[in-house]
Amino acid sequence: xxxxxxxxxxxxxxxxxxxxxxxxxxxxxxxxxxxxxxxxxxxxxxxxxxxxxxxxxxxxxxxxxxxxxxxxxxxxxxxxxxxxxxxxxxxxxxxxxxxxxxxxxxxxxxxxxxxxxx
Amino acid sequence: xxxxxxxxxxxxxxxxxxxxxxxxxxxxxxxxxxxxxxxxxxxxxxxxxxxxxxxxxxxxxxxxxxxxxxxxxxxxxxxxxxxxxxxxxxxxxxxxxxxxxxxxxxxxxxxxxxx
Lengths: 118, 115
Fold this sequence. Notes:
The structure holds 2 protein chains of 2 kinds. Chain A is an all-beta fold. Chain A has strands spanning 4-7, 10-13, 18-25, 31-37, 44-50, 53-57, 64-70, 73-79, 87-94, 108-109, 113-117. In chain B, β4 and β5 form a beta hairpin. Chain B is globular and about 45 Å long. The N and C termini of chain B lie far apart (38 Å).
């Protein structure tokens, strides 16, 4: 399998549930990202990991908890979500090379998990 | 406040004609720009990029133009084909020493190419 794989593709959960989103990349990249896409809003960066270390937390509420056990896997643990958290959650990976690089690596996205919170 | 803006939510173009999608940014530290295309039920896929050291980059039917003084970039598709119908996202990033780049995306423009 190649590319970035996200599971599940669709998820419906109640506000009291606990669920996890999974992302796996088969590209040999060392950086992984979670983005949120809500209707009529830009893709919002949530978290960034580089070599399993979190390098960015974009003021995300604590009901979203990321986990990156290795450079190939990324999870997003969800608990006590709100209906406004319903969105498409996209995982991405890239080859981070640090520094100022005018030709830096692009992001490769998975197909996303469409989340509905009831 | 949005740092990357795509002010046209949708655009319709006749097949064979030119499609021009626009993007404006406010952060003068952005020095690398990308365009992504997204079909329904799929993740965004990379289309073309441009560094701030260039003002034009071309790849087949796709050309991206960068006007740094105006903080504006545009994507030209010529000739447009029905398969180009998708949502196009503009993204920007700035240099960092952390090893990873913070890509900021616009809201997207839905392009519809009419046969």
